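Suppose a colleague, Dr. K., hands you the sequence of a protein chain of 431 amino acids and asks what its three-dimensional shape might be. Before reaching for any lab equipment, you can write down a predicted structure in token form. Begin with the sequence itself:
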Amino acid sequence: MKYGIIEDYTETKPLLVRRKDLKGHTLTMVNVIVDSNDTRQHLDDRLQLHQDSITKMSYMAVKICFEMLNATERLVFTHTWGYRDKQGNWQGIIDHLIKNEADLGTLTIFTQERMEVIDYIAMVGSTSVRFVFREPPLSYVSNIFALPFSSSVWLACFVCVLGCAVFLYITSKWEASLGSHPLQLDGSWADVLILIIGAVLQQGCTLEPRRAAGRCVTLLLFVALTILYAAYSANIVVLLRAPSSSVRSLTDLLNSPLKFGASDFEYNRYFFKKLNEPIRKAIYDKKIAPKGQKPNFYSMNEGIEKVRKGLFAFHMELNPGYRLIQETYQEDEKCDLVEIDYINEMDPWLPGQKNSPFKDLFKINFIKIRESGLQACIHHRLHVPKPKCSGTVSTFSSVGITDMYPGMLATLYGMLLAPAVLLLEIAYKRL
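The predicted structure, expressed as tokens, is then:
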């Protein structure tokens, strides 16, 4: 009342400002349950946090919104977010919203088809679905026996060895002209080559120079190669267990030696088949669901265990996956986790009925919830960040056949080459 006159607020204040109390009107939320039916009893407590985390995050924010509007909540449960079937009919959350059986739903990823039949109200939480894997050992993607030295160092080593070989050949020729000895180099390139190979491999040779000039060259050769050998060996020890940083994109992932799998949820099966970009399609067709084989879909526990063992990329929702990793991995196993986005999606939003009369009311109250810090509080309670590596744990790890593959391959080549050289020597002697 102003100066004895009753002011009409219907003309000065919008409807949304005046309609703050719904007088106990029933509002319905549809919740997706995919992990366990026990989630129905633990939607807003801190029990069984590893189950249906995104559903709990959504419900906690919606519950506060309903209380702010003085509305009576009604909960409906479904097993899927909502996709079209072959007949064009919707399922899950989207079906409930289209039929006006619910006002809000669990956080849902944006798709063009959904935007045509529902409205997205607000972002009240965040989650991501990505490939997670442990960086493969460097020996699986590179020849670690060629990595310790740069190309310039390798070139310097070659020049050093070649120079010593030339000087040894000259001194051995000179010594042979002065006299002979059973253990003396006879001035041939073959004997010099045997001595050089022995020095490079840190081995000795029965034939060696007898004069000071030749011995000085031999001493310098062995000292130089011993220093290089020590540096080379130290680098090899480090590289044997060093992780590789070569897998950082979907293309790298496709061409890597890693095996693939995905969590056994409907959204994974939907988006893997929906995305037709060449790299993504190749990942699904060649790695996830090869033709003629059973698709590689696993439970969260099974997939996380495969990631822990290494050389396995698992496509999963990060929130429950990282919580399980925090609970089951050793500290050193958390240090080399890598994630790569496959779907390339935005943060999910709460879905609501198309052109609902409560749409603007919901939006205003969810903004208030976010600005007051309640949304951040809910997020911190349920969100699990990427596990951090303490950096203080050192563990023993054995070396496998794969790590020594180049060395074993060189041995195999030597074994195959030896009989061929023997036959050539026999043929040369007879001819």
